[in-house]
Structure formats: C-alpha cells, structure tokens
Design goal:
This protein folds into 2 domains: 3-87 and 123-269, Ribonuclease Z/Hydroxyacylglutathione hydrolase-like (Metallo-beta-lactamase, Chain A); 90-120. Helix content is 22%, strand content 27%. The chain is built from 6 helices and 16 strands. It has helices at 44-51, 65-68, 90-105, 110-120, 186-196, 219-229; strands spanning 3-9, 12-17, 22-28, 33-36, 56-59, 76-79, 128-131, 135-137, 142-147, 156-160, 165-167, 175-177, 206-207, 235-237, 249-255, 259-265. The strands form 3 sheets. It has a 7-stranded mixed sheet, with helices on one face. The radius of gyration is 18 Å and the shape is globular. The termini are far apart. The chain binds zinc ion. Zinc ion (ZN) binds next to loops.
C-alpha cells in the first residue's frame, strides 16, 4: 500500500496510508523519535528508517485496526491502559458480528466480506504492550499524554509542548464514531472534552487521523456544542444494517463556522429531546 509522507516541520512527519486514508505521525527529538500509530504497517518500518536513525518509541492513539495493525513490526507498543489487548478487544467482536450478519443476510460474496473483515480486525503479534506514560522527553521535545475516553475507552491525546500541537487520533472528527463504545453517551463525551479544554489552552493545531488538514483549536468548542445539542431528531439510519446491538444512526448538525458535523451513534447514546 502506498504511503504518502508530508513534512509538517523539520522534525515532524505525517505518513498517510493512501488506501485507507489514515495518518501516522513521526515526532523527532534530539535523542529519540516517537511514532504515533502504525496503520496497517505496509512498508512503515523502512519509511521511518529513512526519516530518522534515532531509536523509535511506538505508541497508539487507541487500539483500532487502522491505527495498530502495524504494531507487530515493533517490539514494544505503548497504549492507553483501557485499550491494552489484555483487557479484551470489543471492536473485534463488533466487526465479527457485523460480518456474520452480512454472511447470513446479504448476497455480497463471502470472499468480499472476508476481505473487508481482514481490515476490520485488530491483529496482534509477539509485540509487548505497556500502558502509556504521562510524558516522554524525546530530547528537547516533551510529549504529554491526556486520556480522552470515548471513541474507545483508552483513547489518548498527545500534546507536543514545543510546537503547541495536539495529536488526537479519532477523538475529535467532523464524522465522529461513538458507536464503537456503546457505554458512552454524547453528553458524557462532551463533559470529557469540557474537562480537557483548560489543558489545551495555548495549543493551536489539532492533527487527526483521517484528515490531512489539522483542525484549529476553536474546533473543540464547536464539537462540544454539537455533542450537547444533538438529539434523536438529528439522526438517520446508516448503511450498517445489522450485527450491531442497535441500528447505527448518523446524527448531523451544522456549525456556522466549521460546517457539517456528524456523529455515528446508537439512539441510546443520544439525547431524546
Ligand atoms: Zn478508531
């Protein structure tokens, strides 16, 4: 799979898997580098080696296959404690349940469903998993972590204190997936972000996993407003027809400055009125 490398600064690179459109980030200090996420791993190690000869620490923004299936290329992976594979992998159960539904109820050829499922399952290898540190000094560049439970219970923000950049994975997005964590309500998730907001004071760009352009800091306030304002009447059923505990809906609202914001969620996660 082709990977596009975008230079964000002299010591920061975005590696984009062009097929799945997911970004990994390489943050380089004077003593070591930090690789955030491993995508599907194709050619990743070679690409990283071309960009830095320093030792590389590898962390996941969260444990989902499009962010972590390249983990097997490395010896040790740091991930938010609640997403450690030893805690179970609910996203695999969900992917298998949806695939089973389509095996039984659709005319889509089995081989195609199996192919899609290959991308939807987290695959671990012999790598060791360890809980994330609170901060790491890469040599003149400190990266702090802040838990942001929601999209998965172990989702984490990485704060680059030098550049005042945030690396946010899938925690904030113009099309946010809440259904991946059925216990979450949108109101609770708005509260998570309200608690984080003071910590993000002074931070500018927010780099996310599935868009090439970063969000600006003001997006957080608009995202919170959107989560708080969303009600059942904003939703329409998504194309995912079955295998999930409830029908996944897409709830949409429009922000004056930032345009359409969507949340993929179960009705039970959304305010009634
Ligand atoms: Zn994800």
């Amino acid at each position: 799979m082709a990977t596009k490398i975008t230079k964000l600064s002299d010591d920061t690179f975005m590696l984009t898997d062009k097929f799945i459109r997911v970004n990994e980030f390489l943050l380089i200090g004077s003593e070591r580098a930090l690789l955030l996420d491993t995508g599907y791993g194709s050619g990743l190690k070679e690409k990283v080696k071309k960009l830095t000869s320093l030792p590389v620490t590898v962390a996941n923004t969260h444990l989902h296959p499009d962010h972590s299936n390249g983990n097997r290329l490395f010896d040790e992976i740091f991930v938010g404690e609640a997403d450690l594979p030893s805690k179970g992998m609910p996203s695999n159960d969900l992917a298998k349940a949806v695939a089973t539904y389509y095996f039984i109820n659709s005319r889509i050829p089995d081989a195609i469903i199996e192919k899609v499922l290959q991308y939807g399952l987290i695959r671990t290898g012999g790598e060791k998993y360890s809980p994330l540190w609170k901060s790491i000094d890469l040599g003149g560049r400190v990266i702090r972590t802040l838990p942001c439970p929601g999209h998965t219970p172990g989702c984490t923000l990485f704060l680059d204190e030098k550049n005042k950049w945030v690396f946010a994975g899938d925690t904030i997005n113009p099309a946010f997936w809440a259904f991946t964590n059925p216990a979450l309500t949108l109101i609770d998730y708005a509260r998570v972000w309200m608690r984080l907001q003071p910590e993000l004071e002074g931070y500018g760009k927010i780099f996310i996993s599935h868009h090439s352009k970063p969000l600006d800091a003001g997006y957080v306030g608009a995202f919170i407003k959107n989560l708080l304002g969303m009600t059942l009447k904003d939703g329409k059923p998504s194309f995912i027809k079955g295998g999930t505990p409830q029908q996944v809906h897409i709830y949409k609202r429009r922000d004056e400055k930032y345009g359409n914001m969507a949340v993929w969620a179960y009705p039970s996660q959304v305010r009634k009125v």
